[in-house]
Structure formats: structure tokens, C-alpha cells
Amino acid sequence: MTEVDPISVGIFLVAIFLFLIIDLKTHKEDEPITLKNAAIWSVIWIATGIGFAGYVYYHWGLEYMSLYLAGYFLEKSLAVDNLFVFMAIFSSFSVAEKYWHRILYYGILGAIVLRFIFIAAGTSLLFLGEWVLGAFGIFVLWTAWKMWQNMRAGEEEITDYTDHWSVRYTKRFLPVYPRVDNHDFFVKQDGVWQATPLFLCLVCIEVADVMFAFDSVPAIIAITQVPFLVYTSNIFAILGLRSLFFLLAAAKRILVHLEKAVIGILAYIGIKMLLMVFHVIHIPAMISLAVVLGGLAIGVLASLLFPGNSPETAAPETDPGS
Q1: How many whole angstroms separate alpha carbon 291 and alpha carbon 280?
Q2: Residue 321 falls within a domain, yes or no?
Q3: SS3 annotation, the chain
Q4: Which tens digits make up the pLDDT trace of 269-288?
Q5: How distant is the alpha carbon of residue 200 from its chain centre?
Q6: The pTM of the whole model exceeds 0.85
Q7: Could you tell me which residues come within 8 angstroms of residue 19 by beta carbon, excluding any fewer than 6 positions away?
Q8: What is the pLDDT of residue 316?
């Protein structure tokens, strides 16, 4: 498979954008994703990714289907960390759950373009430097701490971002409208287009995807050097992970101790990133996957055994800018 025929490219693009359009139409209202809805869409995206493997088998044979599936499941395992980092970012920006789908939807459109650039270049764009990964690890640890504080104090949705850290720093370079009145990323004030806090959160989501592409894209390229297989397996995998994120978020609302497990997993991810940056140790992906699944299992089990021991909530006195 040195060249890819236009029909195969067309089938891939039609499958991706058809389901993305259906997804957008299904979730056009700003409201939290239910557990049932998240489960249905998780099955849809996984079935689509596996179904495309059948097309690869029909068109190119067993060998290339095996390479596609290897890349697909490798990306799934490597990108599990994304789920928890996305949750940390939303917590850091104090974004209401009803806007999460819109932000991740447009974030995935950006990821489709960025992953294509990475794979076409055949590198992970490490020219950005390891300090970026280290800074991101510190951000993840800081957010885990803030999530712990918010959980104990009682988290509050905010609409006025005037004193929020993201607005304070971004205003130095870009006009920012410091309120969230609806789901718009930009609003026009006094004849000037201004970015909203939701757009700042979207940018942070895209940066997170860039950070995790540093590991996953080269790993898949190591399995197969066929660009079409690398790209298709990568995109189908991350599309499915977005639905799994909503499954996790919906479960967190029901299982009272799951948030504690998520905070612990975030702390592990941040420490893992710093250990890798300082060349102390590189933790294999399978160990990370085991830690994540084990942490989630503990959170679920604790919620089932002690359903009444929900975190104490007091009247929140939170500072949106902290």
C-alpha cells in the first residue's frame, strides 16, 4: 500500500464527517450528556472504527487490517490520559457541563487537522521542547489540587470571568469578553470581535491534544509506516475516546466517590509527565492503563459499597480567579 486510492479516502472522510454531523445535530442543545447517551455514542464510534477495519481487510487483506487494528488499540491505550486531562481543563476553567460537548466537538475538528500535519511530517514536532511537556505536567498537578479543593468546598458554576486567571493573562495579547452568556466562542462588542472564556478553554484542549500526540503518533508510526493506516486508526480512536469522556463524566455524577479516583489519576499523570521530562523513568503505556483502570475500579467499588458517604458540601466561597 504505497498509494491510497481516492475511493478509500472518500469512504473514510464520508464516515467521519457523516457521524460528526449526526453527532452535532443530536447534541445541538446546550445540556449535559446523559449516561445513556454517552454509552450509545461510545458504541457507535467503536463500531465505526472496528467496521473500518473490515473495509481495510476487504480492500487490502489481513496484514493491513492487523496493522490498522494495532494502531487503533495502541492509540486508545495511550490516549486514555486525555480523558482526565480534559476533565482537569474544564474544572480549571469552571466551564458548565452543558458546554462540554460543543468545546470537545470543535476540539476534535482541530485534532483531525493537527494529527494530519503530524503524520504527514512523520515526526512528533518535538522542536517545541520538553519544557512544554513539563509545564503541562505541572498544570495537571495544580488542577488536581484545585479539583480536590472544589470537591470539598462545593463547586460553583461561574459566568463572570473578569478575575479568572485565563482572562487576566490572555487580555495582554487578545481582547477577551469576560462573560459566558451562551455557547459562542466569539462575541462582537463595540465593533470589535472578542474571544470568550469558552474559546480560551478550546485552545487549551487543542494544546492538550498536541501534547499527547507527542507520544501516540510516533508510537503508531513505529508499528506501520503506511500513512493512511496511521491516520485512520488514529482519528477513529480519538473520536471514540471523546465519547468515553462523556461516559466517564456522566458516571462521575452518579458514583459519589469516582471524582476522588479521577483526582488521584490526574496526580499520577502529572507526576508521570514530569518523570519523563527529567528522564527519571519512562512508564510504559500498559502500566499507565492499569493504573487508570484500577483507579476507576476502586472509585466505582467505593461508590457501590458506601453510597451515602458523599463529599461534604458547604456554602462555597470560591474565587473564580484562583
Answers
A1: 19
A2: no
A3: CCCCCHHHHHHHHHHHHHHHHHHHHHCCCCCCCCHHHHHHHHHHHHHHHHHHHHHHHHHHCHHHHHHHHHHHHHHHHHCHHHHHHHHHHHHHHCCCHHHHHHHHHHHHHHHHHHHHHHHHHCCCCHHHCHHHHHHHHHHHHHHHHHHHHHHHHCCCCCCECCCCHHHHHHCCCCCECCECCCCCCEEEECCEEEECHHHHHHHHHHHHHHHHHHHHHHHHHHHCCCHHHHHHHHHHHHHHHHHHHHHHHHHHHHCCCHHHHHHHHHHHHHHHHHHHHCCCCCCCHHHHHHHHHHHHHHHHHHHHHCCCCCCCCCCCCCCCCC
A4: 778 878 877 878 877 767 77
A5: 15
A6: no
A7: 44, 45, 48, 239
A8: 42
Tell whether 316 is covered by a domain: no
pLDDT digits (tens, 9 = 90+) for 208-254: 777 777 666 766 766 676 788 888 888 888 887 777 888 877 776 67
Count other Cβ atoms within 10 Å, centred on residue 122.
12
Classify residue 315: in a domain, yes or no: no
Sort 88 into a burial class: Cβ within 10 Å, 0-12 / 13-18 / 19+: buried
Position 1 in a domain: no
Q: Which domain holds residue 173?
A: 6-305
